[in-house]
User: Fold this.
Amino acid sequence: MPVIPFAELPPASRVWIFGAAAPIDDIDAQRVLATVDAFLRTWQAHGQPLYAGRDWRDDRFLAVGVDVAREGASGCSIDGLFRALKGIEGGIGTTLLDGALVYYRDAQGLVHAVSRDDFAQLARGGHVDLETPVMDLSITDRAAYDATFERRAADSWHRSLLP
Assistant:
């Protein structure tokens, strides 16, 4: 099954977002995307092919989407995606599966990954605030990914980490 361009997935498509703890250079990004594309071409749930696509942003964010109107991903198929990503991590020198990280964009436009405690500490020091752009990896559909993946901390769950 060919990989569908991410932008062609329906807005209700299920999305999983993965963030790298450190930026991934162009060479490693190509390796990651080639591995993900190869996986997506063979991705199935209960023997049925999944209509899937992926997006890559800011040298560290991978979004994988599935058109659930055609076929939904099962627990086993989702586990397969996570195993494929885990297999990539050793070769790129960073993790894609650390769900405990908070991602934000600084005033110079650079994206940073920090722990929740570090983000709260940055807030107490005045380095991040309600206007700081943050990335929300908890989004679960393509429409929300397109509209609100990056938004002000005031408009995201990140607000709870701010004083």
